Amino acid sequence: MDRMNGSLPRDFAALVLCGGESRRMGRSKACLPFGRETLLERVVRQVGQAVSETIVVAAVDQALPTLAGAVRVVRDERPQAGPLAGLSAGLKALGAHTAAVYVTGCDFPFVQPAFMARLRSLLRGFDCVVPCAGGIEQPLAGVYRAGIGRVVEDCLNGEKPSLRRLLERLDTQRIDSDELRDVDPRLESLINCNTPEEYRMALATATVASEPPSISADRE
Fold it and tell me: What pLDDT digit, counting tens, does each position of 46-55 carry?
């Protein structure tokens, strides 16, 4: 996974889930301005430094900013089922060569490629590897095997489906987040923007302008 060699791991992909209702934010997080980019564009750019394929999972009629590079957009036809349904849709869209996938949301603007690569290296014989911050699992900052689709579907069809219930059904490697500080000293990969206050704090941290960029949607 050494980008210095000018190559990216062909078997490693990223899923960026952005089809949620953004109730706490009050507006679409994917299109929030973040400097000269939108929040989604920034996350896609960040994860693209560690993987050979990036897939954005959006709601059926969700408008998105124009995404540069080799990024595919797939539509989650079960948006009311939460991120677990987004994960299912994304896994179905992966190429046959993909062995592992980093799963994140569109509201993690500081995700670090080295953090992603470290988790990929820790997957080994497990179904997934997720960091735990303060003893709390972080399923939207984890690496999953591409072949877990059937388990995801079973979990979706069960009672109270969620990513955390999925982790209970998988052979999950849980890593204390402090063990990842050598590749992400401030654990910025775990910072997300769920509320307007968290968004403003992220903008201040990044010292970026808050003027909205020009946004063209792929679907109105």
Answer: 999 999 999 9
